[in-house]
Design brief:
The chain has about 1250 residues and is α/β, with parallel strands linked by helices. Among the domains are: about 100 residues, Immunoglobulin-like, CATH 2.60.40; about 220 residues, Rossmann fold. It has a six-stranded mixed β-sheet, with helices on both faces. Strands 1, 4, 5, 6 and 11 form a five-stranded mixed β-sheet that branches. The chain has a five-stranded mixed β-sheet with strand order 14-13-12-15-18, sandwiched between helices. Strand 13 and strand 14 form a beta hairpin. Helix 6 runs antiparallel to helix 7, helix 17 runs parallel beside helix 19 and helix 26 runs antiparallel to helix 28. The longest helix is centred in the C-terminal third of the chain and has 25 residues. The chain is elongated. It starts with a strand and ends with a strand. InterPro entries: CHAT_dom (IPR024983), CS_dom (IPR007052), HSP20-like_chaperone (IPR008978), TPR-like_helical_dom_sf (IPR011990). This is CS domain-containing protein. It comes from Rickenella mellea.
Length: about 1250
């Protein structure tokens, strides 16, 4: 064969370039081609370093020639060079000036990765066994300092090779534009600027065409412009066509054509490309004789191509062919061969793919075996090591999903953690490694429910999204994974921001993925799942419609036999079931059952998700039974629920849900046919769920509640059984875990909705068991839970600090941080940033630390009940200053628990019921709505509006009469029997009321029998001075509150006659005049009026003044109770911000605004209103309003109130409750003041 002259592409020549700062120099290393011998001729001038590499004889009788210029302002005597057969190095002292130059590039072995981690090497020079040159920017800060010192160029060979202008440069600029290299005299030559093919060559020469293709492919690798890939394919195809089958390079050229077709298939998804690739690889194998050293690699490429087509089409013949060819490649390759780990890894991936299709355990075992072998053969620090670990971790994850063995998920996490650790930042595979680690953590979280796993999963998935550029093929996958993580955390914690983030990321993934994207169906299914979870929370019908729409699209895009088909069917079944619950259309529940049944049928036995699918099928049958009453449906429900429980392994976080579903079906059949066995089995299911030490606390709390309900049903047979009380004890233990302090306040309030009647029903049960003290304790423990948690964080721990100073100091520090973060803005963002996510996770970590410290303290002698709910022995002290009446309203019974002189008395309210209380509350709401006293902003400025034949103010009378006869009168009779009465006629009997349930929204203080003109025959205001308290703990706390010494009264007066966006309140100016009259000295009143009453100024004034008078608009936000607040000039002072205050100077607040003690109907036991919030902030007493008040009533009440409370500008001995009582008495005596809508809304809370 005649000798040829070949010019290796200049771009491979530079291997490294770095700055040695210590020695003030630049080091450049040149890797020489694989040659038998080499020589270097080297010359240096003041501006140019040039050298020439020449090769002797190679095995192919090919001569190599290489020329290079390096431009730098250096002297030849300053240069140092060294030469070996493989490497030529130059050491250049750093120059002080020069022209700007591009980033240096590093030659690397090229790989074509896909999402399964397969790698395919691609040739770059025209000869078997060589490798494609891929270039990456050297990520070195020092390069920036070299930019002005060095520029590199290549002189054109005159050996007949074709080159393009782009081939003159082995570097790209920072913005990825092509570099320009000046000639010796400066400027750019005509040749360099032409960009044309030059220097001879023949476009019908297969070798030239092949080199052209390599050049195009190189620029595709750099810039990912699909046009370069298309050009490469055209040249490869032409080169292969022109090469005879007998030519020794034909297999090699066909192989490269096949590889680039696979690359385009992975980008564009065209089936024709993968078909054509397989055809070329098959021809390559056929043309290569047995025993040829490249034959194993050709089998390997053919197998990988079949694997790619299988992943797209799911045809079994393709996966069988993939396995056949990959096994051949592995069997023909010795362990010491550098490609053996590649072959083993893709063989393992193919076994994993067949496992996903057929579910045969032998395949997953073989997959793990091959991936383990690949890892073992991969040298430490090899660049392929992370991908090997990632593939092994993925295989362990899949076996865990099938068998549920915890050792497998631990192995998956460990291997993915190592893959992330060994993958440098900036490498293209880093996002993939992060995603796989996140998915493994997510799976472990779904098994164990450990919060740390889901937190870390989100961090890894978020980082993967950030590292994946827009337009990258994997970007939708990264977004989808992040959306799944947020959705799982929402399911665990219930934070609305998480489900919003989930939907946002899933929508983004769906938008970025074309319809032919291999994962589009999965993205749609996950988006649908997120929508149906938001529907569960908010109840918006549009969300469930979106859920069904996206799930149906996912099913349409997924062929039968696809391993994900059962998931998509299960999700659409849940969505139909949810819509049935709302619309009660029989067709929806029928579709749900069909979808779930098909999902169960398609899911292989042993799969970790199968129990959940079976449980969903049982739930659908239960729903249809509840709708149609067919016994066949409830029987099917129970069969499926029992099977789901049996198949769910112990320790799985869904196990409590499975027991609950079984309990629901058994209790439904019991209620239908009264089979005693169903009652006992239902109790057993709920009891087991409640006692499990794992799973969501909310699910176990639900079980405890249902257990208590069924246990009451059994009381008819065994009246003295203890289990019903045991159920409530478990429930109260779970309450603080369900409304965990690590959650936002809004989320805690949402979780509490499910327990809204727990305390009242438990108390009624305890009373029926003749244990009123336990009833009182449970009422205190199960009400105002969130307020109690905040107070816990503020509780002084002086005794703990004295005995155990280390624990005390740590607890104080963590409590302070927790309290600051409880209502932070990071909980309320629709789009949470990375810093806000970190703040949320920090808050939850603090909550876990707080729990740990408190647990440690309770193990110390003398601190066994540290920060536990108060027992009766402590609660009874709330009655030191007068009787306290706790009114319990339950569906089981209504009772009054009366504490007199620290002794407890019980009065059963025989003629009152929970239903009656509900009716009274609804009647009152109707009255207020008709009179315009419940409209959001139509408050102080509005008088009563009577519509139609509505009875107006007279409609209050039957409500107040019922409260008198059924509630207040029996209580007063009990007090009278114990000789409790008014000390004097002027003072009046002081009573504190603590109502529960619907009674919390009714004006007990105004109960009585009234004439048509509003005068009373007999009423509570004629007999006693009433105050309210949300809990007994609030009374105890405020009674013990000691005010710091002060020289004079300091009152903050916030006056808002006009507020942007709402009706004017001219009467507020009258209130200011009244305050100044009674306070005497201007120095004792700090006035913020009009535009001066900003949020910042008002909150600052509250910290400085012990008394506050707020004359402005008040708002009760029924959708978001914590956003209720007071309207000032620049916005709303939210309740969520008020409760963050711990005002040590606070003593009394007069809320001369509207709806400041209205509360939230859905959470009556939580006292979510401004008045309670002021008590929590530190005020001992608060005057507030139950509904909107008249603008002319407020100044009158304020005048009479302060007239009794102050004398010569200083407080008298009169208590605020007493002052308000007599002020309201005078209002009733005023012409027109006897209207119930005028005087009834004013109340006093606190001490």
């Amino acid at each position: 064969m005649a000798s040829e002259v070949r010019r290796p592409p200049a771009s491979w020549s530079q291997q490294t370039s770095e700055i040695d700062e210590a020695k003030n120099r630049i080091n450049i290393t040149i890797i020489l081609p694989e040659i038998v011998q080499s020589s270097i001729s080297f010359e240096a001038t003041n501006t140019t370093i040039s050298f020439e590499a020449k090769a002797g004889s190679s095995p192919n009788n090919v001569r190599y020639r290489f020329n290079c210029h390096l431009y730098a302002e250096v002297k030849s005597e300053d240069l140092r060079t060294s030469l070996s057969p493989d490497v030529f190095s130059v050491v250049i002292p750093k120059a002080k000036k020069g022209v700007r130059w591009p980033h240096l590039m590093d030659r690397q072995k090229s790989t074509i990765p896909d999402h399964l981690g397969k790698t395919t090497s691609l040739n770059c020079t025209d000869g078997p066994g060589s490798l494609k040159a891929e270039y990456r920017r050297l990520e070195m800060a020092e390069i920036e300092q070299v930019i002005e010192n060095l520029e590199r160029g290549v002189r054109i060979n005159q050996d007949g090779d074709s080159v393009r202008r782009e081939d003159l440069y082995s570097v790209v600029t920072r913005d990825k534009s092509h570099a320009t290299v000046p000639r010796m005299g400066g400027g750019i030559s005509e040749f360099e600027s032409s960009g044309q093919w030059v220097a001879g060559g023949n476009d019908d020469d297969p070798r030239v065409l092949h080199n052209h293709a390599v050049d195009c492919l190189k620029y595709f690798s750099l810039h990912e412009d699909i046009k370069d890939l298309e050009q490469a394919i055209r040249h490869f195809e032409r080169s292969a066509q022109l090469t005879p089958d007998s030519h020794p390079d034909k297999p090699f050229r066909l192989r490269n054509l096949g590889l680039v077709l696979v690359t385009r298939f992975q980008r564009l998804g065209e089936i024709a490309d993968i078909d054509h690739a397989i055809s070329n690889h098959e021809q390559t194998v056929q043309l290569t004789p047995d025993g040829h050293r490249d034959k194993p690699s050709y089998f390997y490429n053919l197998g990988v191509s079949f694997l790619n087509r299988f992943e797209r089409l799911g045809e079994m013949v393709d996966i069988e062919q993939a396995l056949l060819n990959l096994r051949r490649a592995v069997d023909m390759t010795p362990d010491y061969h550098p490609s053996k780990p590649d072959y083993l890894a893709n063989l393992g991936t193919s076994y994993l793919a067949r496992f996903g299709k057929l579910g045969e355990l032998v395949d997953i075992e073989l997959a793990i075996l091959n991936h383990k072998h690949a890892v073992q053969l991969t040298p430490d620090d090899c660049k392929d090591e992370p991908s090997r670990l990632r593939q092994l971790g993925t295989t362990f994850l899949q076996r865990f999903k099938r068998l549920g063995e915890m050792a497998d998920i631990e192995q998956a996490v460990t291997n993915h953690e190592r893959a992330v650790q060994f993958t440098p930042d900036g490498t293209p595979d880093k996002p993939n490694c992060l995603c796989n680690l996140g998915n493994s953590l997510l799976t472990r979280f779904s098994q164990l429910g450990e919060l740390a796993d889901i937190e870390q999963a989100i961090l890894n998935h978020r980082r993967a999204v950030q590292l994946t550029p827009d337009g990258n093929f994997d970007k939708p996958d990264c977004l989808n994974n992040l959306g799944c993580s947020f959705r799982m955390r929402f399911k665990q914690l219930g934070e609305m921001v998480d489900i919003e983030q989930s939907i946002m990321n899933h929508e983004h993934a769906v938008q970025l993925a074309p319809d032919d994207h291999t994962s589009k169906a999965r993205f749609l299914c996950n988006l649908g799942h997120a929508f149906h979870m938001r529907f569960d929370r908010l109840g918006e019908i549009a969300d469930i419609e979106q859920a069904i729409f996206n799930n149906e699209r996912a099913i349409q895009l997924t062929p039968d036999g696809h391993p994900s088909k059962p998931d998509y069917l299960a999700n659409v079944g849940i969505s139909y079931w949810k819509r049935f619950d709302r619309l009660k259309q029989e067709v929806d529940i029928d579709r749900a059952i069909l979808s779930h049944a098909r999902a169960v049928q398609l899911m292989p036995d042993g799969h970790t998700d199968k129990p959940m699918f079976i449980s969903n099928l049982g739930n659908s049958y239960l729903r249809r039974f509840e709708f149609l009453g067919k016994m066949a449906d409830i029987d099917e429900a129970i069969v499926n629920q029992e099977r789901a429980v049996q198949l769910t392994p112990d320790g799985h976080w869904l196990k409590p849900h499975q027991f609950n579903n079984l309990g629901n079906s058994l209790s439904a059949r019991f209620m239908k046919i009264r089979r005693y066995e169903d009652l006992l089995n239902g109790i057993a299911a709920y009891r087991t769920s409640a006692h499990l030490p794992y799973g969501p606390p909310a699910a176990r709390l639900y079980a405890a509640k249902k257990w208590s309900w069924l246990a009451r049903c059994e009381l008819g047979r065994h009246p003295s059984d203890q289990p019903v009380l045991d159920a409530y004890k478990i429930a109260f233990d779970l309450l603080p875990r369900t409304a965990w302090v690590g959650l936002s306040i809004d989320s805690r309030h949402h979780e509490i909705i499910a327990a809204s009647s727990l305390a009242c029903n438990a108390a009624a049960t305890a009373i029926s068991e003749n244990d009123p003290q336990l009833a009182l304790t449970w009422l205190e423990q199960g009400r105002s839970i969130v307020w109690g948690q905040i107070l816990q964080l503020r509780t002084p721990v002086d005794e703990l600090c004295r005995v155990h100073p280390g624990l005390g100091e740590e607890l104080n520090r963590v409590s302070a941080q927790l309290e600051r973060g409880t209502s932070g803005d990071h909980f309320a963002m629709d789009q949470i940033t990375e810093s806000q996510e970190a703040a949320v996770q920090k808050h939850r970590q603090l909550a876990q630390v707080w729990d740990r410290i408190v647990e440690q303290v309770r193990k110390k002698p003398g601190f066994e009940r540290f920060l536990l709910p108060k027992q009766y022995s402590e609660l009874r002290h709330a009655a030191r200053d007068g009787p306290v009446i706790v009114l319990n309203t339950s569906e089981y019974a209504c009772d009054a628990l009366i504490i007199i002189s620290e002794r407890l008395h019980h009065v059963h309210l025989e003629s009152f019921s929970y239903k009656k209380a509900q009716n009274l509350r609804e009647s009152l709401h109707s009255i207020l709505s008709h009179q315009g006293l419940r409209v959001r902003y139509n408050d102080r400025g509005a008088g009563p509006v009577i519509q139609g034949n509505f009875r107006g103010d007279d409609a209050f009378r039957p409500i107040l009469a019922e409260l008198w006869n059924s509630v207040v009168k029996p209580v007063l009779e009990c007090l009278q029997s114990h000789q409790i009465s008014s000390p004097t006629e002027d003072e009046g009997l002081r009573i504190r009321w603590c109502p529960t349930g619907p009674l919390a929204f009714l004006p007990i203080h105004a109960a009585g029998l009234y004439n048509a003109d509003g005068t009373s025959l007999i009423s509570l205001p004629d007999i006693a001075i009433s105050s309210y308290t949300p809990t007994l703990t609030a009374v105890l706390r405020n009674s013990q509150h000691v005010m710091p010494h002060r020289s004079r009264l300091k009152l903050l007066a916030v006056i808002q006659p006009t507020t942007p966006g709402v009706a004017p309140l001219p009467g507020t100016r009258e209130e200011l005049k009244i305050i100044r009259t009674h306070c005497v000295s201007d120095s004792s009143v700090h006035v913020l009026e009009g535009s001066k009453a900003t949020i910042a100024e008002v909150t600052s004034g509250m910290e400085e003044c012990s008394w506050v008078h707020l004359a402005c608009h008040g708002v009760q936000d029924t959708s978001h109770p914590m956003e209720s607040g007071l309207l000032v000039h620049d916005g709303r002072i939210h309740l969520s911000k008020i409760i963050q205050k711990n005002l040590r100077r606070a003593e009394f607040a007069f809320l001369s605004a509207c709806q400041t003690a209205t509360g939230d109907v859905s959470r009556p036991e939580e006292a979510i209103h401004l008045a309670a919030g002021m008590l929590l902030a530190g005020y001992r007493g608060v005057v507030a309003t139950m509904w909107s008040i008249r603008d002319d009533d407020a100044p009158f009440v304020a005048d009479k109130f302060y007239g009794r409370l102050l004398k010569n500008g200083e407080p008298t001995s009169t208590k605020p409750a007493e002052a308000l009582h007599f002020a309201i008495r005078e209002l009733r005596e005023k012409p027109g003041g006897c209207k119930f809508s005028s005087w009834v809304p004013f109340i006093h809370m606190g001490v």
